[in-house]
């Protein structure tokens, strides 16, 4: 029966009619992507078209921080967006927010309301479509059922979602050709504490902007009476989203994938990624169809998806957008994940965002490409042609390095999760040691400044032509052009690598919301910029502004102080782990120790002093993360127990019984049954050990679950007792999978999951 279900799922996937949609056309001619882009977004352009000019100007002043949104303006915007949305089929609206679940949440309310009028003949009810400014600005979801980490009790249920006016509203298709108006929002408690991921991200962006603007005003002064050259600095973000796609029917036959997002059992197939032929290979037809449909929907939603390709592991893929302001980029990343989830279902596929759904092949990350930009569009991490004399660039570069040096442990906390723990340090992703990679050119720039000597001339004989501040490559083939070469190579093993004009925070997990890791990064950089600004003021003494020499003194100081976290080699190697220990860098290799950083006095002081978290919010988040970690692993352990007892052991018993009966019959007819006997003897030790280990796992699950009032004890037990025991159980189960006849095995194997798309 098990084999029949697997075969039926495979055949259905092969024989099923592929889903086909028409790309939008205008008079029979395909529309350009630029024409489709953002058509389902209530953008500033749409607002300027639909709102009275004074109302629109009032709104612009509000989003620039000039004033709060008054009732008249809110009512006008609410009316305009309702008409715009209903003209596109909207029947409901929702405040769309980001609770601390690595996902999004929404509650739908209808535009429809009833107006009662009492007449001599009785009550007359008139149906109306209404959406007021107060309904636009805030809503009241039940806060008691979202993670609060003890800030709220069950009977204190009130919470508020508040419209984030800088993030545009949009519509998404609903059932039966209807649609829903989405209002991006923050989520706060009755007393104003952040219950979500977005509030703290917005705070961190403001803290960094304030710190950066103060530094820029100091080093790049303007004449008295003139406005500052830079009024706002914002962080930019590009999130490279990796994921797996598998056949949905086969997914339905795997209880572990359905419940936990990863396979708790499974042997590697003879061929997986060792031939290195999947990366950038031909995209499978069904996958490409799903990707294309997903991109079409995202273009309409104003999500600038740019890149798609096969990733390293079989059935693994990636989508990446153009860079945007961080808060918009986070919204768009979460939208991308949601849209791909829905579109995959339409193509009878299942998208897996878990960081390590398959043991033995590469897991998935969400590489966060991060930088800082001024409101004039200048990238503060652009080295320009001569980085060695670009003191503005150098100050912001060393400020970022100082953030990694001083607060690497809290950055590690931001990427910690039960799922990402399986990926970090697994020879495919950066380890738990947070270091920075700059590349040969910038490393030489910093070293030469520190040592007070000229920069060495980089040259590669015959193949490289030097030009100031960069290089070109001569390929020695007449019909190929000379190509530009970046200042730095790429280091795929580094958790925080400089890649031309930005840093790539590679250690973020694919399932995570980017909000929390980016919030902590923004906070650390803001704190470092503040310290560097104070040092500059101290260095320049009584002068009104720092001289280039003053800047250079501070830059050299920070270069020396942060040298330990700069590493240009292989972060996957054991040698680096030993070297990092010599340098005094923390190597945090489990979530329990990582989350503890949120309670460290140094980190608490930095995060509260910058105004990004309150003490109670940090305590709450620590509690939430520890509790979620413990629950995730308890769910995995319970799922594994069920699979072993209900599927693996019965399958192995049935196969062993048939083999034993066959051996007995062979002996009755005087035929050598030694092959069967050998197999039985190989299976029996694994069966005995599996029974013993599963019984112990059940006992530990019960013991740890009983500690539910002590979250730290639960998390420690899950980390140090359950995970090692689960690995022992898996070892025996995977061995039995290799011995048990295929028709007996109750669930799809890795070969079927990874190669049937």
Automatic annotation (TrEMBL):
<dbReference type="InterPro" id="IPR014746">
    <property type="entry name" value="Gln_synth/guanido_kin_cat_dom"/>
</dbReference>
<feature type="coiled-coil region">
    <location>
        <begin position="687"/>
        <end position="714"/>
    </location>
</feature>
<protein>
    <submittedName>
        <fullName>Uncharacterized protein</fullName>
    </submittedName>
</protein>
<dbReference type="Pfam" id="PF00120">
    <property type="entry name" value="Gln-synt_C"/>
</dbReference>
<dbReference type="GO" id="GO:0004356">
    <property type="term" value="F:glutamine synthetase activity"/>
</dbReference>
<dbReference type="InterPro" id="IPR022147">
    <property type="entry name" value="GSIII_N"/>
</dbReference>
<dbReference type="InterPro" id="IPR008146">
    <property type="entry name" value="Gln_synth_cat_dom"/>
</dbReference>
<dbReference type="GO" id="GO:0006542">
    <property type="term" value="P:glutamine biosynthetic process"/>
</dbReference>
<keyword id="KW-0175">Coiled coil</keyword>
<comment type="similarity">
    <text>Belongs to the glutamine synthetase family.</text>
</comment>
<feature type="domain" description="GS beta-grasp">
    <location>
        <begin position="91"/>
        <end position="192"/>
    </location>
</feature>
<dbReference type="InterPro" id="IPR040577">
    <property type="entry name" value="Gln-synt_C"/>
</dbReference>
<dbReference type="InterPro" id="IPR027303">
    <property type="entry name" value="Gln_synth_gly_rich_site"/>
</dbReference>
<dbReference type="InterPro" id="IPR008147">
    <property type="entry name" value="Gln_synt_N"/>
</dbReference>
<dbReference type="InterPro" id="IPR052725">
    <property type="entry name" value="GS_Type-3"/>
</dbReference>
<dbReference type="Pfam" id="PF12437">
    <property type="entry name" value="GSIII_N"/>
</dbReference>
<feature type="domain" description="GS catalytic">
    <location>
        <begin position="197"/>
        <end position="648"/>
    </location>
</feature>
<dbReference type="Pfam" id="PF18318">
    <property type="entry name" value="Gln-synt_C-ter"/>
</dbReference>
């Amino acid at each position: 029966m098990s084999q029949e279900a697997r075969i039926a799922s495979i055949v259905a996937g092969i024989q099923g009619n592929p889903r086909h949609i028409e790309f939008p056309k205008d008079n029979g001619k395909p529309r350009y992507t630029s024409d489709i882009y953002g058509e389902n977004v209530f953008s500033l352009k749409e607002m300027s078209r639909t709102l009275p000019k004074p109302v629109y100007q009032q709104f612009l002043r509000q989003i620039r921080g000039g004033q709060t949104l008054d009732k008249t303006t809110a009512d006008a915007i609410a009316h305009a967006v309702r008409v715009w949305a209903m003209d596109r089929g909207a029947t409901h609206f929702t405040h769309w927010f980001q609770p601390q679940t690595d996902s999004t949440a929404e509650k739908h309310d209808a535009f429809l309301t009833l107006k009662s009028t009492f007449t001599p003949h009785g009550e007359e009810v008139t149906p109306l479509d209404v959406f007021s400014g107060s309904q636009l600005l805030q809503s009241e979801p039940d806060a008691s059922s979202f993670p609060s980490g003890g800030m709220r009790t069950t009977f204190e249920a009130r919470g508020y979602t508040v419209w984030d006016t800088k993030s545009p509203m949009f519509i998404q298709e609903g059932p039966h050709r209807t649609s829903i108006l989405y209002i991006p929002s923050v989520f706060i408690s009755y007393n104003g504490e952040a219950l979500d991921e977005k509030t703290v991200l917005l705070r961190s962006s403001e803290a960094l902007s304030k710190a950066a603007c103060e530094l820029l005003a100091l080093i790049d002064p303007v004449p008295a009476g003139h406005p500052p050259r830079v009024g706002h600095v914002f962080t930019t973000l590009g999130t490279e989203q990796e994921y797996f796609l598998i056949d949905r029917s086969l997914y339905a036959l795997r209880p572990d994938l359905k419940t936990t997002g990863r396979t708790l059992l499974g042997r590697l197939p003879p061929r997986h990624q060792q031939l290195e032929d999947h990366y950038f290979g031909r995209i499978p037809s069904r996958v490409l169809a799903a990707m294309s449909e997903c991109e079409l929907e995202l273009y309409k939603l104003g999500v600038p998806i740019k890149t798609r390709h096969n990733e390293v592991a079989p059935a693994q893929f990636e989508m990446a957008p153009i860079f945007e302001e961080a808060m918009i980029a986070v919204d768009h990343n979460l939208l991308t994940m949601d849209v791909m989830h829905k579109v995959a279902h339409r193509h009878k596929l299942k998208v897996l965002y878990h960081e390590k759904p398959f043991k033995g092949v590469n897991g998935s990350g969400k590489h966060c490409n991060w930088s800082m930009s001024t409101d004039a569009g200048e990238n503060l991490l652009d080295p320009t042609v001569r980085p060695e004399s670009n003191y503005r660039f150098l100050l912001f570069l060393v400020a970022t390095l100082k953030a990694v040096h001083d607060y690497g442990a809290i950055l590690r906390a931001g990427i910690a999760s039960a799922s990402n723990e399986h990926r970090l340090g697994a020879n495919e992703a950066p380890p738990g040691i947070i270091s920075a990679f700059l590349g040969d050119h910038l490393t030489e720039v910093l070293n030469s400044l520190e040592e007070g000597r000229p920069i060495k001339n980089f040259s590669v004989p015959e193949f490289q032509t030097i030009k100031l501040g960069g290089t070109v490559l001569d390929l020695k083939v007449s019909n190929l052009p000379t190509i530009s070469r970046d200042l730095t190579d790429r280091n795929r093993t580094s958790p925080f690598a400089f890649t031309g004009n930005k840093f790539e925070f590679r250690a973020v997990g694919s399932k995570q919301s980017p909000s929390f890791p980016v919030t902590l990064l923004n906070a650390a950089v803001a704190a470092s910029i503040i310290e560097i600004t104070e040092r500059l003021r101290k260095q320049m003494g009584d002068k009104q502004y720092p001289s280039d020499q003053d800047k250079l003194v501070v830059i050299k100081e920070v270069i020396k102080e942060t040298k330990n976290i700069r590493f240009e080699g292989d972060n996957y190697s054991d040698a680096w782990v030993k070297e990092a220990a010599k340098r005094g860098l923390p190597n945090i290799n489990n979530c329990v120790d990582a989350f503890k950083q949120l309670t460290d006095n140094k980190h608490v002081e930095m995060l509260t002093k910058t105004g990004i978290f309150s003490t109670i919010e940090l305590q709450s988040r620590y509690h939430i993360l520890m509790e979620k970690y413990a629950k995730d692993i308890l769910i995995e352990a319970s799922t594994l127990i069920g699979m072993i007892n209900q599927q693996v052991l019965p399958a192995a018993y049935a196969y062993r019984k048939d083999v034993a009966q066959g051996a007995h019959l062979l002996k009755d007819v005087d035929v050598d049954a030694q092959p069967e006997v050998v197999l039985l003897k190989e299976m029996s030790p694994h069966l005995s050990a599996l029974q013993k280990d599963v019984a112990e796992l059940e006992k530990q699950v019960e013991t740890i679950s009983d500690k539910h009032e002590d979250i730290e004890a639960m998390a420690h037990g899950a980390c140090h007792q359950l995970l090692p025991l689960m690995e022992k159980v898996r070892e025996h189960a995977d061995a039995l999978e290799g011995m048990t006849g295929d028709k007996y095995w109750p669930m799809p194997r890795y070969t079927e999951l990874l190669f049937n798309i």
